[in-house]
Amino acid sequence: MTSLVPGHAAVASGLSRERGGWWHQFVCPAHGTELSHEGIPGPVPPADGVRCPHGCRVDSEPVRGAWLVLSHQAWARRIRALAHRAARTGSAADRAEAVSLLAAYAAVYAEVTGGGENERAQDWMLRGRLFHQALTDAIWSVSIGHAVWSLAESAPELAEALRPVLPVLDATAEAARAARDSLVAEGRFTSNYTAWLNASGRVCARAAALVRGGADGAPAVSVADDEWLAGEHGQLAHALAATTRGGWEWEASTYYHGFVLRAYLLSLRGTDPADLPERARDRVVAMIDVLAGLATADGILPAVHDGPYLRAPLALEWTELCALADGFVGDAGLGAVAARARREAGDGDTLEDELRALPGGWFAGPPLAVARPAGAAVRVDEEVGISVVRAGDIHAVLDHGPHGAGHGHHDKLALYLYGRRTPWQPDPGQVPYGHPAWRDHYASAVAHPCVRVDDGDPAEAAGILLARDERSLTVEVRGDATSWYDGVRAVRHVVVGDGYLLDVVAATADRPRRLTLGLRPDVPLQVRLDGDVARTAWDGAERLDGTHAARATGADGPVPVRPVVVPGPGPADDPQRERAHVDWTAHDATAALWVSVFRTGPGAGAELLGLDTAEVRVRRADGRVDVHPLPAEVAHG
């Protein structure tokens, strides 16, 4: 390995000199929790195994491979932060360290990959070279490419020192193209992988051009002439194909939505947002707006479908995305998300600050000025079936659309409840995929606050929106031999009241079944029966109170609906965190109706008075009674 600067060997000695595996296997086999990041970034995993939060030490080949993924990615992120800082400050020391690490990585890459695919990848994977997956290679190479880009662009007279990195940039761009072609041939162009493969190709190709241009610089390339952006299978085409008109990434996963959006923004470096084709430009803005609309007032992003519930490295990615979004569109609305992510990331790093202070900005033009309507109490994306309902300080998310393919969960008609900063009943998220048992659990119906039938998981299903107005919406899912629960239908009707949220759920079955509606809190929950009404108190930074009533019928008339409190696992960041789960179950029922009124604040008013077959009555804090007629689909099954 050739040393480019004094101290190169010492700087490079901490790099991992082994191929990485699949990061999703970085999970404790006993507890389902992600393992400790001790020693990251570094050369090798801890000799005595990697620690889990519950005291285990895990030393297996898959875990070692996952640790190496995280270490390589952390090194790449560190190099990128150094390069951006060197570009901003002109620091010779930061530049020397970044160049040294890049040159060392060029040698490591050539040594460990040999220019070929990683033969240890699982059969289903799109194979990478430095890692098991081509996707992981792309993510890593985007950081490497941006580091080279910053160094070469900020001091073109010093670009010659970066020539040893050219084989890595060329190889990763070539690999990205081959992997993208494979996805296209398989009819999987809309895969979230494509966004990162395009980002890798565009960033690495541009970085290589800047190095080769040297002191003369690299010729500017317009968006229209950049195949990675404007080509048939480029980033702008992907943005239109893989998202809804409302801006959601088609899998309706918060994590993968942000994952894809971040790839888009990273690949658009050096472009003027105003110069992008209007439809693609507007779609990226809509994707940013989706996150702003999904987040609570204090910046909680509900972990809809697959994705970590809470994870410090992911929090760093959110801070990065928020910085890029602020450069793309004015008033992006993600300030609270960024602030919360900084708190969750802990010590973190300086990358967000460097992105915000990059000389000349990330984009070549100012943020777009976009007029937006005032926030609605009910916001619906009919294509993915994710609705956000705001009732005072209650922030509710209702999942009622298509399953979401491989990243979907059995959560049809689930209702998630948040305060400004309290996850009362959150989407629980998902563990690293390498733990099949806990992954199955968090994808299951029992993990979500939704309707279950006979305690089994349904088939994949797509619900539909029946009706909506400014203060309510009604959604439905129907089962048949291939969808959801055969012979069962459920409807959920959510209303924004004055000082409360009304939730009405009805289920009907073609034969006697066990019909259950679940509550799944992530805060201490108290449940108290008061005659035919149950009262719940949800603790946290903010208080939520609920009153609940239910009725059910079977083949021979009324059947009881009993709330049963059972211990259950908390959200997916730690399956060992025990929470009180509530199941409202009617045995041998052909129809069931559950009604809840939620309100916030100590001693909050507004409570459920009663219900009959046609209406629900709610007494407000001022003593007046609201009468809510039930939609025909609810009242008559």
UniProtKB/TrEMBL annotation:
Is-annotated flag, keyword Ubl conjugation?
no
Protein name, entry field:
Heparinase II/III family protein
Q: Which domain of life is it from?
A: Bacteria
Sorted alphabetically, the keyword list is: Lyase, Periplasm, Signal
Residue ranges of domain Heparinase II/III-like C-terminal in the record: 383-530
Name its cellular compartments. Answer: Periplasm
Query: Which InterPro entries does the UniProt entry name for this protein?
Result: Chondroitin_lyas, Hepar_II_III_C
